[in-house]
């Protein structure tokens, strides 16, 4: 293979890593990545405890990463029945398919409907995705789509009240919107101050997104610090007819 071919292929792969930006604060082998792995392992445990999947459960994981590292795709790394998972992501998924050959990968469009029939899955899950889909109306539509295709929904998001903002590593200033926007501008991280890129989530905001007709349970997960824990979860189940 020629040098120009290798360079061209590498550039194509880099271009396809559509969510590389979400790991800027958790570089490989860094403290940030170690904390991320610890938090997401706890979220995985809470997923198992809440949804109680078994070897027959069909699971849809929406928003999987096309970046392959220790902190990404924790469900795919740990779940003992990978052949029961369908993973949906924005990229081509070349690296994902190589890393997880037993998992069915489907490419989806941002903001579009999920390409699955109603109630196709026992469980639909989305980890660290909801805060990136846009404002409240886009978030509500996203949750409704998850509830359409699955009997249970399990969502996790970063907690706004965790002392350090996840995507920028800015401490405390994210607790007040004007100070966070100013800090992002001063540090060259303006993109994270836009709702189209990031909406900082609270428990109250998360609960407001639950569709009608669903039972809702919320809690703290990730790095455990009570109301200041790193992440929040919401578990939705259908009410009996």
Compressed to H and E, one letter per element, the order equals HHEHEHEEHEHHEE
**Largest sheet report:** 7 strands, mixed
For this structure, what is the CATH class?
Answer: Alpha Beta
Spans of at least 5 consecutive residues with low confidence: 1-16
By DSSP, the count of extended strands is 7
Shape: globular
N-end to C-end Cα span: 61 Å
The CATH topology is Rossmann fold
Work out the helix count.
Answer: 7
Mean model confidence by pLDDT: 89
Instruction: Work out the radius of gyration.
Output: 18 Å
Structural class: alpha/beta
Number of domains: 1
Any idea what the CATH superfamily is called?
Vaccinia Virus protein VP39
What's the architecture, going by CATH?
Answer: 3-Layer(aba) Sandwich
Share in helix: 25-40%
With strands numbered from the N-terminus, the spatial order across the biggest sheet is 3-2-1-4-5-7-6
Fraction in beta strands: 15-25%
Question: What secondary-structure arrangement, pairings included, does this model have?
Answer:
Elements: H1 3-16, H2 31-51, E1 59-62, H3 74-78, E2 85-89, H4 94-99, E3 104-107, E4 121-127, H5 136-149, E5 150-158, H6 177-186, H7 203-207, E6 214-221, E7 231-238
Short précis:
By secondary structure, this protein is α/β, with parallel strands linked by helices.
Features:
241 residues, alpha/beta, Rossmann fold, globular
């Amino acid at each position: 293979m020629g040098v120009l071919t290798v360079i061209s292929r590498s550039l194509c792969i880099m271009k396809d890593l559509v969510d590389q930006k979400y790991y800027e604060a958790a570089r490989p082998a860094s403290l940030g990545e170690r904390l991320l792995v610890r938090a997401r392992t706890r979220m995985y445990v809470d997923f198992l405890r809440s949804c109680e999947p078994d070897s027959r459960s069909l699971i849809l994981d929406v928003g999987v990463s096309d970046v392959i590292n220790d902190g990404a795709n924790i469900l795919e790394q740990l779940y003992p029945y990978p052949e029961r998972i369908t993973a949906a992501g924005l990229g081509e998924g070349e690296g994902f398919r190589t890393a997880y050959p037993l998992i069915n990968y489907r490419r989806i469009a941002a903001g579009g409907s999920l390409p699955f029939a109603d109630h196709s899955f026992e469980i639909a899950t989305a980890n660290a995705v909801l805060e990136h889909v846009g404002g409240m109306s886009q978030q509500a539509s996203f949750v409704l789509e998850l509830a359409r295709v699955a009997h249970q929904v399990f969502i996790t998001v970063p907690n706004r009240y965790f002392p350090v903002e996840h995507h920028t590593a800015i401490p405390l200033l994210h607790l007040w919107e004007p100070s966070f926007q100013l800090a992002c501008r001063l540090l060259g991280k303006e993109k994270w101050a836009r709702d189209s890129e990031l909406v900082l989530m609270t428990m109250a905001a998360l609960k407001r997104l639950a569709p009608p007709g669903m039972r809702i349970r919320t809690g703290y997960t990730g790095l455990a610090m009570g109301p200041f824990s790193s992440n929040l979860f919401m578990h939705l189940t259908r009410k009996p007819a």
